Amino acid sequence: MATPNPLEKTHSESPAPISEKTFHIAGILAVVHGLAELAPSCKSVSVLWLLHGRLGSKDDMASTANKCINDWNQRPSSDRKVGLIAVAFDQRNHGRREVQRAANQTWRDGNVRHAQDMFSIFHGTALDTSLLIDHLGSYVFHAADAPSIDQHLVLGVSLGGHAAWQVFFNEPRVTAAVVIIGCPDYIRVMTDRARLSKLETYKSSNGAEFLGSKDFPTALISSIQKWDPRGLLFGASEINPNPSEKEQARLGKILDSKIKGKQILVCSGGDDKLVPYHCAEPFMKFLNNATTGWYKGGNVYVEDNVYPGIGHAYSEGMVNDTTRFVSDILAGTPIKPTSKM
Predict the structure, then answer these.
(1) What are phi and psi for residue 325, nearest 5 degrees?
(2) DSSP assignment of 308-341, as one string?
(3) Quick check: 187 and 231 in contact, CB under 8 A?
(4) Where on the tree of life does the source sit, at the highest rank (predicted)?
(5) Closest CA to 154 of 162, 142, 146
(6) Percent helix, strand and coil across the chain, each rounded to 5?
(7) In CATH, which of 3.40.630.10, 1.10.10.10, 2.40.260.10, 3.40.50.1820 is domain 11-182+241-331?
(8) CA-to-CA distance for 169 and 167, rounded, in angstroms?
């Protein structure tokens, strides 16, 4: 069964086209959307980093860039001191950076290293985001009177959503994120995929010995514990949505160092079979409980939306929530809607 492209229906639904300019930065072709639309009065620029899905490319994100930038630019304002641009680039081993096509495939497609290939690819993309944050300003705003880049947001879809979770947790300069059909718990989503793929390493022990097997090596688990949100907080142990006071003290220190004061919108398809919400749900329960309870002082804004009847797709409801959330972040007024389509 072919992997669906969650962005395939977004290209023809864009509003007014937004300018694009490509820069070669550190060996990466980065497409910057919206430079020409910045107002002469702009003094501060926010950057929305766009991370595409598996088997896709940076071109898939043009419609999302257009919608977010147009939404912000069309909001009523007495002046335009804050501007928005969006940057898209090919994930590692994707688009013009493809080295080995088979490495982007799944177990069902015959890729025996699917788990380590996928994690290392989107982990690399998260690192690339930090690298490009370091250098973007010197390429696009090098004039003495140019506006400054003062805010970074990340938006990822599917594989890009997995990467966006890592950026959100590991890049301090990114203060807000939109995760579309991505998962913060790599162990859970891949264990579930191994079950559905009927891998022998899963079937032989009903999953009990899958972690640490040839399909999910111990070295991969070590990397997950360094970079994956669930791995950073819980390692390979089960997630406790209601930790003890002792655990709260330990977890609170990690949350302080990773996401204190940040804001995130998570959009999941209720009928998603590829990245099912039940794989993210334990982590999201923990995060929601923490940020509305014992970790409320961390001032972390979490919006966790599940869209009934939606599969592995970037649905219209998700698009609407994304543009609203991004513009609200720029305006400094993120407010949870009382209802959604």
Answers:
(1) -65, -45
(2) TT--SS--HHHHHHHHHHHHHHHHT-----S---
(3) yes
(4) Eukaryota
(5) 162
(6) 45, 15, 40
(7) 3.40.50.1820
(8) 5
In b/e form, how buried is each residue of 261-289, taking b as 16+ CB within 10 angstroms?
ebbbbbbbbeebebbbbebbbbbbebbee
Sheet holding 82-89, edge to edge: 20-25, 28-33, 82-89, 44-51, 148-157, 174-180, 263-269, 301-307
pLDDT tens, the chain, 341 aa long: 346 567 665 544 556 789 999 999 999 999 999 999 999 889 999 999 999 999 999 999 999 999 999 999 998 875 688 999 999 999 999 999 999 999 999 999 999 999 999 999 999 999 999 999 999 999 999 888 889 999 999 999 999 999 999 999 999 999 999 999 999 999 999 999 999 999 999 999 999 999 999 999 999 999 999 999 999 999 999 999 999 999 999 999 999 999 999 999 999 999 999 999 999 999 999 999 999 999 999 999 999 999 999 999 999 999 999 999 999 999 987 665 544 43
Please give the structure tokens belonging to residue 191.
């264990």
Task: Say if pTM beats, i.e. exceeds, 0.90.
Answer: yes
Q: Cβ of 154: how many Cβ atoms within 10 Å? A: 29
**CA-only gyration radius of the chain, Å:** 20
Q: Are 181 and 268 in contact (CB under 8 A)?
A: yes
Q: Which of 317, 335, 339 is nearest to 327 (CA)?
A: 335
| 114 phi-psi bin (left φ>0, alpha ψ -120 to 50, beta other) | alpha
Residue 263 contacts residue 301 (beta carbons within 8 Å):
yes
Strands of 140-204, DSSP E = 148-157, 174-180
> Tokens 């395939």, residue?
8
Q: Is 175 helix (H, G, I), strand (E, B) or coil?
A: strand
Enumerate the domain spans of the chain: 11-182+241-331
